[in-house]
Each structure stands twice: as structure tokens, then as C-alpha cells.
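Input C-alpha cells:
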């Protein structure tokens, strides 16, 4: 599997260097500040993420009120058409949705001015000016998907969620498929359910020969899912839903006509997964009602909640299908694109972030692939270290670690299995590993494994096992904020009240950072960071 992941990463690099990436990218966010931020950001990184010639048009659009990603994609589509009114639509457009409160990555999210997908990776831009973000890494991975679909005749929009990089675990051979008449794509990993996957993921059923989608199943217990799947025919396969999707221009135009009123209503919102896809799969209202009744018996309320917001939702989906058939002489064709077992980089959760960082110090499948994605070397020194543009004090005890753009000056430093990126450190003690990202400190001590310090600048800091530590660079002060892997629930009082000895709650931190100018927040950190160890 790692060989396939790495081959696909090399293919992605070639697509970018040969200027075969997307010509138009639409990034969708939820505030005027974010709209400006992502427009400016992608103009700086587009030569590394999409096309080396910088000829990708960046359209940053605003979703003023919650739409959900179904109505939200229609809202963004309407904006794309207005922006490109005098231009021809390219074959495929990438629509990247960079939403989310990022509660479960607190307080790192707040340190990023409430933009979770802006979390920096160890990968620098080709100009060396900035570090690429998780949103950039996610977009890089999507370049392969778009190129494959376009090369086989698909014309439409690929809707991508902001900060998850997904590299296929199979090679998509050229010239083996024709997608001119495909109106929707579901991206899946074809596999059989496990207890964890059944509970955590939605499932897409499809025809084994045509790869046409036949149904979608919600997240549920293994026994319930097994019972549902027991009725499928021998010609039916299932796969884990990977979330992102493709929609043809044809289907978007019809959907826009039917749902325009709902898009413009600030009180209505609907996601694609799972219920829009389920509705598109149902053969009639009776089947839709049966799904709602089944959810009632399971104690779930998804369909009922949806119908409270949009009582005629299913009838509109049915109307959309009928209009499409009248216009094109057939029903919409929704197919599955099998990714195989994917490499999945999700830095939006503390646990997955920590595991991914720690893996980069190893030669595991994930570690090697992550380094390949971030363009980091695999060759180690005599102590098993991966040193990239870094200098360390002679005599420092550094073993099996990854250091990128880092300076360490104290010979009594100890780093075993650690990750240090853009660090300016005098004495750093990480005997059991840990990660120090974009920090500058006279002394930083990790008393146990699994700690992560992010954008910390100062004299002396200490992290216990599993700690998370960062600073908020506010206009009137700098606040130190903590969390820990042991805190897994960021709802209720864990979010609205101060925890972990913090001076304010994560919710209050979010509110305060929302009032700050992003450029000034970054400048405050950079001025402090740059002033250390001159």
C-alpha cells in the first residue's frame, strides 16, 4: 500500500508541475474575514497546490448563514456562475469548504484565529515565504481526483471538505472509464464493515458491474448494518463513504432551479450526507417514508429533523429527478469511484494530529507516506535523525527525531523520537518524544510522551503527558491556553467554562479571537518568535 500511496503522490506532483491542475478553485467560508484570508492565502500557495504556472483562478466565496454542504454547494455554485459570467466554465472546478468551529482541536483552533484548516504543516512553499497548511495539503491530494475525472470526460464540481488529505490506495488507470454521462460521484473505500467503521462511517452501496450507486446507509451499530446489508443482492458491493463528492454541471443547474428558494432562506440548511443521497436513491416516497420509520425504531431523528426545516424536501428531490429526466431523457447517473484503502491525513483532532506527527519520525507506512506528502527526506543521520535545514548544539542527545528549520543551542538538550518544526530553542527536553511546532523558548520540558506545543514563545514552559499548549496573541495581552488528550468531550461546560486551569473558556477564546485582525495576530506571534535566539 505505501508504494501505491507514494506513486500517487508523485503523480500529483507531476500534475502540478505540468500545469494540469484545476483552472478554477472556489473556497467557501463563513465570514468576511475568512473570505479575505483564504483568497489571499491561496494566491500565495496556488503554484504549489494547483498549477506551477499560477494560472489557477481563486474564487473565495461567503456563506452568510448556515446552509449545510448541499444547499451550501448550490449557493457557492450560484456565486461561481456570477463570477465567471463572461468566461467559459472549465471542465472541472474544485470547491473547497473550509468551515467548522474546530471545537475538538481547541485551543489550537483559537490560536489559528478560529481557522482549523489553516494549521501549518512542515512543508514550505516554493518561495520559502510560508508553510503550507492542512487545507493546502488537502487540496494537493484532490488534484489527482480532479485530473482523473477531467481526463475521462466528467464536467462538474468536486466538493471537498477543508483539511483532510486523502490519497487513493489504488492506481486509476487511464482510458479505462468514460464519465461524460455521469452526474454524481461518490468517493469510497470498497471494504466490508467492521464494528468501528459501521459506527463511525456512512456506507455506499453500488452495483458490482456498473459501479452505479444504489443506496446509502447511515452510521449505525454493526448488527443493524449487517441486517440491512443482508438483503442486498450478490451483485451489490459496499464501501466506506469518504465524504467528498462530484456533481455534474447538469445536475447542479437542475438542483439550483428547484432549491433556489431554500438556498436564499437564511433559516434552512441541508447536508449531502446522508439524507440528500438517500433521497436521491429512493425509488419513491414510500421508500423514503420507510427510511424515516426505520430511523424512528432505531431512536434516530435525522430525517424528522430535516423535514422540520424543509417539510417538502423529498418531493423537491423527486421533482429534481423528474426535471432532469425531462431535460436529458434519463435519470441522473450517480457512480462510485473506488479509492481502495486510502492514506488519510486528518489533523483536525488532537489524537489523529499527534499520531500523524509521531509517525513522521518512524519508517511506518503512514510515516513514510506523510514525509513524502510533505516533501521531507527519508535519509537519517548516524543517530537516526531526519534533520532538515536545522542546526543543533554539539553534544546534544538527539535520537530518532525529525527537526525542520530548527535551531537548538544547549548541549544538554535531550530529544528522543520528537518532532520540532520552525523551532528556536536553547534547552529542549523531550526524552519521551513530543512535538514543538513553531515555538521559541529558552527552556521547554516535556514530562512524558504525546505532548504538543504550538506557537509558544517565552522563557520557560512545561508540558505533562498528553498536554496541548499554545498562546493567543490578542491585541491587549497574550494568553496561555492548555488542553490534554484526556479531554475528549469539547461540548457543554468543557467548552463554555474554563478547564485545565485556563484563564478563560475555549468559547470565550473563540469569541475574543473572532474580533482580532488575523494579520495582526500573525505579526504579533512572528515578532515575538523572530526576536528569540538572534
Amino acid at each position: 500500500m505505501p508504494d501505491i500511496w507514494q506513486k500517487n503522490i508523485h503523480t500529483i506532483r507531476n500534475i502540478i508541475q505540468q500545469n494540469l491542475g484545476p483552472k478554477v478553485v472556489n473556497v467557501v467560508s463563513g465570514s468576511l474575514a475568512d473570505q479575505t484570508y483564504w483568497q489571499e492565502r491561496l494566491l500565495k500557495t496556488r503554484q504549489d497546490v494547483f498549477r506551477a504556472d499560477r494560472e489557477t483562478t481563486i474564487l473565495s466565496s461567503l456563506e452568510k448563514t448556515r446552509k449545510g454542504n448541499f444547499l451550501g454547494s448550490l449557493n457557492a455554485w450560484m456565486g461561481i456562475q456570477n463570477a465567471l459570467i463572461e468566461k467559459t466554465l472549465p471542465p472541472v472546478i474544485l470547491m473547497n469548504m473550509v468551515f467548522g468551529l474546530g471545537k475538538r482541536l481547541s485551543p489550537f483552533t483559537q490560536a489559528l484565529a478560529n481557522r482549523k484548516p489553516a494549521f501549518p504543516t512542515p512543508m514550505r512553499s516554493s518561495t520559502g515565504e510560508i508553510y503550507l497548511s492542512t487545507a493546502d495539503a488537502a487540496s494537493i491530494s484532490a488534484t489527482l481526483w480532479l485530473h482523473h475525472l477531467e481526463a475521462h470526460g466528467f464536467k462538474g464540481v468536486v466538493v471537498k471538505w477543508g483539511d483532510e488529505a486523502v490519497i487513493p490506495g489504488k492506481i486509476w488507470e487511464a482510458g479505462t472509464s468514460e464519465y461524460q454521462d455521469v452526474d454524481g460521484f461518490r468517493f469510497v473505500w470498497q471494504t466490508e464493515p467492521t464494528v468501528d467503521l459501521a459506527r463511525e462511517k456512512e456506507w455506499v452501496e453500488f452495483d458490482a458491474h456498473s459501479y452505479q450507486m444504489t443506496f446509502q446507509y447511515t452510521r449505525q451499530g454493526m448488527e443493524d448494518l449487517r441486517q440491512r446489508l443482508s438483503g442486498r443482492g450478490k451483485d451489490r458491493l459496499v464501501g466506506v463513504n469518504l465524504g467528498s463528492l462530484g456533481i455534474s454541471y447538469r445536475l447542479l443547474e437542475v438542483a439550483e432551479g428547484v432549491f433556489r428558494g431554500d438556498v436564499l432562506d437564511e433559516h434552512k440548511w441541508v447536508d449531502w450526507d446522508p439524507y440528500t443521497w438517500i433521497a436521491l436513491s429512493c425509488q419513491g416516497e414510500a421508500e423514503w417514508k420507510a427510511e424515516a420509520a426505520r430511523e424512528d425504531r432505531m431512536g434516530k431523528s435525522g430525517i424528522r429533523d430535516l423535514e422540520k426545516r424543509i417539510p417538502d424536501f423529498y418531493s423537491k428531490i423527486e421533482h429534481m429527478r423528474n426535471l432532469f429526466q425531462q431535460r436529458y431523457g434519463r435519470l441522473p447517473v450517480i457512480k462510485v469511484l473506488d479509492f481502495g484503502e486510502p492514506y488519510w491525513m486528518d489533523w483536525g483532532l488532537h489524537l489523529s494530529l499527534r499520531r500523524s506527527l509521531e509517525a513522521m519520525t518512524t519508517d511506518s507506512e503512514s510515516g513514510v507516506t506523510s514525509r513524502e506528502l510533505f516533501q521531507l527526506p527519508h535519509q537519517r543521520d548516524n543517530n537516526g535523525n531526519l534533520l532538515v535545514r536545522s542546526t543543533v548544539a554539539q553534544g546534544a542527545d538527539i535520537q530518532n527525531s525529525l527537526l525542520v528549520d530548527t535551531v537548538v543551542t544547549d548541549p544538554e538538550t535531550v530529544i528522543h523520537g520528537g518532532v520540532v518544526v520552525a523551532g528556536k530553542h536553547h534547552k529542549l527536553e523531550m526524552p519521551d518524544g513530543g512535538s514543538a511546532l513553531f515555538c521559541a523558548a529558552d527552556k521547554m520540558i516535556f514530562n512524558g510522551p504525546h505532548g504538543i506545543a504550538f506557537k509558544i514563545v517565552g522563557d520557560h514552559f512545561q508540558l505533562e503527558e498528553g498536554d496541548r499548549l499554545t498562546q493567543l496573541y490578542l491585541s491587549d495581552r497574550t494568553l496561555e491556553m492548555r488542553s490534554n488528550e484526556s479531554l475528549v468531550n469539547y461540548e457543554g461546560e468543557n467548552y463554555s467554562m474554563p478547564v485545565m486551569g485556563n484563564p478563560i473558556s475555549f468559547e470565550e477564546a473563540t469569541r475574543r479571537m473572532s474580533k482580532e485582525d488575523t494579520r495582526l495576530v500573525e505579526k504579533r506571534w512572528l515578532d515575538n518568535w523572530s526576536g528569540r535566539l538572534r
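The first helix runs from residue 2 to 17. Residues 386-530 form one domain.
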